[in-house]
Design a protein that fits this description.
With 431 residues, the chain is of the alpha/beta class. It is 42% helix and 23% strand.
Length: 431
């Protein structure tokens, strides 16, 4: 059995669907296909929920955009009117249900982690139905598995942990019950509790679903198709000369995921490492292009630069224990990093959502900061970067944190300064 994951970002271009079909047609073994929501639908749904909570009717515009994307894809991709009709009928029913949930959020001004999970789960469900029908239309026999019935987690809404044993029983039963079926398709990211409450396993966690399934099915490897050729050492849009990371060991990949590399969800590396599952990142648009292989092998010696924007820094006096407790509780899935400085405690949040539960009377906020992380440095490059940053940039405010054992560097600063620092670091490591 082979597990293949397809990133949702690829399915905004017509050719991706044909390539998706051809990859599955060319298979010579049974396959479990894991898919994600199309485009940036999950982020749009999250934003819609936050707007609804604030009382803004702006969420209706977002839902209209979601409708337009899926309706447009149906008209463009499906050649068979029956497939088009089936999808639009399904989609119409589901989108009305979603609108009712959002209206309820607007009326009550209440958006719990549990409700947010339910809202965000719709994107994957839309994609699952669409691709199931698309495969049927192209005469690729497949069975649709709803991850809400297969993947079981705890109740840590927003970042639920999968129950491997229960998930394993359900997944194996679904596949073994259909011995003549060569292709199964399931959505990532979304799961449920044992009592059928919808959960999600964290943003960008569809790859975790794929690795979890590969682990359960004793697969030796997994292919992950995205819209880029493997993993690059830096953002290729900013740095056209960025090189491809051909190989990475599990530990380096884990560090990159923790620091915010979108292709890698940290928990997926733990599953892969424990079962020695080899992960290959491929481009769906260039099947013979550059890849990145993650395994026990030695890593490429290229350092990796990862920048996360739109962070919020909250800080308050360390003596305000009640306020600190409140931040820890209300932002439990958003805290990236903390540090102490001059009797203040700083919290770095990765959030575009509402922080209405934070005691802002005692808490100060710095908006629009970023983190630049550099991992997999050689000692020589590590020292050069530290020397450069330690001399400072005139008039610029930033904080530097080091992990000397792994030669890792993290810099927190405003976004514009971050771009300058990122460029300086790129020049040093590629000198």
């Amino acid at each position: 059995m082979k597990v293949i994951k397809f990133g949702g970002a690829v399915f905004t271009r017509k050719e991706a669907f044909a390539n998706f079909r051809d990859i599955l047609i060319s298979r010579n073994e049974r396959v479990l296909v894991v898919i994600s929501a199309f485009g940036k639908i999950t982020s749009q749904l999250k934003k819609a929920a936050v707007l609804a909570e604030s009382g803004s009717i702006g969420y209706n515009k977002i839902i209209s955009e979601v409708e337009l994307l899926h309706s447009g894809l149906a008209d463009q991709i499906f050649k068979n009117n029956i497939s088009k009709y089936k999808f639009k009928q399904y989609f119409g029913s589901e989108i009305e249900y979603l609108k009712k949930i959002l209206k309820g959020i607007e009326i009550t001004s209440d958006l719990s982690y549990r409700t947010m999970d339910m809202v965000m789960s719709f994107g994957e469900s839309f994609a699952l139905e669409f691709l199931h029908l698309y495969l049927n239309e192209n005469k690729i026999d497949n069975i649709k598995l709803d991850s809400k019935e297969i993947v079981i987690t705890d109740k840590n809404f927003g970042k639920a942990k999968p129950d491997r044993n229960e998930t394993g029983k359900r997944l194996k039963n679904a596949i073994e019950s259909n011995p003549d079926t060569g292709c199964f398709i399931i959505q990532g990211f979304v799961a449920s509790t044992k009592d059928n409450i919808v959960t999600t396993m964290g943003m960008e966690s569809s790859n975790l679903t794929a690795i979890l399934c590969a682990d359960i099915l004793s697969c030796s490897s997994i292919d992950i198709y995205t819209n880029v050729e493997g993993i690059m050492q830096a953002d290729p849009e900013r740095f056209p000369d960025a090189q491809n990371i051909q190989t990475s060991d599990y530990n380096t990949a884990l560090s990159a995921g923790i620091k915010g590399l979108k292709l890698i969800y940290p928990d997926m590396i733990d599953f892969a490492k424990n079962s020695n599952v080899i992960i290959t990142f491929r481009s769906i648009f260039n099947k013979s292009g550059r890849n990145t292989v993650i395994s026990e092998s030695i890593s490429s010696d290229l350092p990796i630069i990862i920048r996360i924007d739109k962070l919020e820094i909250l800080y308050l006096r360390k003596s305000l224990s009640d306020s600190i407790k409140k931040i820890n509780e209300s932002c439990r899935n958003k805290i990236l990093f903390t540090w102490e400085e001059n009797n203040y405690l700083y919290f770095v949040l990765n959030t575009n959502g509402s922080n209405k539960d934070i005691d802002l009377e005692n808490t100060k906020v710095i908006k629009n900061w970023c983190r630049i992380s550099v991992i997999n440095n050689s000692t020589d490059k590590f020292i050069k970067i530290i020397n450069k940053l330690s001399h400072g940039m005139s008039g610029k405010d930033y904080r530097i944190f080091l992990n000397g054992a792994n030669n890792e560097i993290s810099v927190f600063t405003d976004i514009e300064t971050g771009k300058l620092i990122e460029t300086e670091i790129f020049n040093i490591i590629n000198d």
